[in-house]
Amino acid sequence: MSFTKSFTVEQTPRQIFDAFNDVRGWWSEEIDGGTVDVGDEFEYHYEEVHRCRMRVTESVPGRKVSWLVLENHFDFTRDETEWVGTTITFEITEKDGETEARFTHHGLVREYECYDICHKAWTFYVGTSLRALITTGEGQPNRLDVLPAELAR
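The structure assignment produced for this chain is given below.
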């Protein structure tokens, strides 16, 4: 079982693909490294709470993006291997004149100590921030160590 979040919008597959790749526009402005081309590696961090390093493993314009989690650290879990070796995919399909965006964190399972927090975070970042970036051109990423209000609760 994996965590999946999807939504349907009127934008084109290319617009959704471009938004997926604009990681600084929907997840965090504090992304270091490339996020677009296969082989690119980038680091995400939010204070000392969460750090991870990702590699782009697949990029098919208008269709799919995949990342492999190379390293991960949460300051609130005992198991340092949570997320390591899991994959994240963004898939795009056209459906009834609209476009579906589907995010899946393969390997993010309920048994993980981080599951509840990760579920809440991905739901916000994908369902709210990424969706807003796609539909309005403006996401709600972490801004220089300021967590979005929806996640601070």
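Interim note for the steering committee: Residues 115-136 form the longest helix (22 residues). The two ends are 27 Å apart (CA to CA).
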